[in-house]
Amino acid sequence: MNLKVTEEAAKWYKDELELNEDASIRFYVRYGGVGGLQPGLSLAIKQVEAAEPIAEDKAGQVHFFIEADDEWYFDDRSLTVQYNEKWQEPEFIYD
Fold this sequence. Notes:
95 residues, 4-stranded mixed β-sheet
């Protein structure tokens, strides 16, 4: 599994969440939400340090990662986080 966060998406997170330089953002699985890869679940984010990352990327001075305990959700797919110009927010692309 791979994780790719575009510079545009990283800038959105940095600006929207008022992140400091070298912040760490985890993508994790939560119950509910819309547009998830698995029915009834979706991805959420929180600002924490990595413990056991299985996928990582650094963009816009921000460290983005996914922990090993969420690997099952991706079903052997990778995640690209890109900025959607129309909706003016990040979107998740599962490859």
